[in-house]
Amino acid sequence: MTPARRPRISSRLRSTGLSGGLAALTAIAAAPEAQANAWMRETGRSFLSFSVQSTVNGPDFGNYASLFYEYGLSEKLTLGLDAGRNIATGDTTGIVFLRTPLPLDTGKSVFALELGLGAVDAGGSLTATLRPGLSWGRPYDAPWGNGWLGVDATYARYASGGGLGKIDATFGINHPNGNLTIAQIQFSAPSGGGNTLALAPSHVIKLSERSFLELGAVHEFRNGTTALKAGLWTVF
Q1: Superfamily for domain range 10-235
Q2: Strand, helix or coil at 112?
Q3: For the chain, which residues make up each domain, given as ranges?
């Protein structure tokens, strides 16, 4: 399936200024991560990405490395791994998830339901995490070309109490040369307060039929933090 009909992946970049207890959990869980859209991965096909984000202006919450993988188990089931680590603190998160389409007759729009289970290791304390999610996506054609729109919502519930809600809205453009341009608005709402809003543009350069280079930035408004991101994608 071509990128015009199935965008490869959208990327999230997050930073927070929380610290201690539940705040540490929400800080690590709200860190940069990759998140798939409402489309299923093709049966037998894999997608793998690795990226690093670094603060260049404002409060520095540490460099963050992200790993994302998904595999098409069937036409209606995608298996994935969403993991990340704060390089400075060692705080780590990992979520294994399953995604399935919702059978809604809505024209070109697609909806998907996701359920993830994993753990967050913040400050040496390991906490189990349950993360349900709901996604919407829709391809479009415009004078400048084709692309996609998407909204991804998740809520991570921690076994120790509290949680973190996220909503990402994505606007993507497929270029004729295989490159992608992505703009995201990212909203994060920890149960303890301190909501954040970020703007995250990125450009993805096609290196070959199977590999891509992502270059991006993010500005988080609450803390006034700006970061740069570089990542590699591969499909196989």
Answers
A1: monomeric porin ompg (2.40.160.40)
A2: strand
A3: 10-235
Give 132-155 pLDDT, tens digit per residue.
Answer: 999 999 999 988 889 999 999 999
**Residue in 113, 130, 115, 112 with CA at minimum distance from that of residue 29:** 130
Query: What is the Cα–Cα distance from 44 to 14, expressed in whole angstroms?
Result: 31
Task: Report the length, in residues, of the chain.
Answer: 236
Phi, psi of 23 (to 5 degrees): -60, -35
Which residue ranges in the chain fall short of pLDDT 50? 1-35
Q: Provide the token pair at 92.
A: 């780590």
User: What's the N-to-C CA distance of the chain in angstroms?
Assistant: 13
Strand partners, 95: 82, 118
For the entire predicted model, the pTM comes to 0.83
Mapped onto helix, strand or coil, the DSSP state of residue 24 is: helix
Structure tokens of 168?
Answer: 């990402």
Amino acid at 15: S
Report the half-sphere exposure of 197 (CA within 13 A, side-chain side).
2
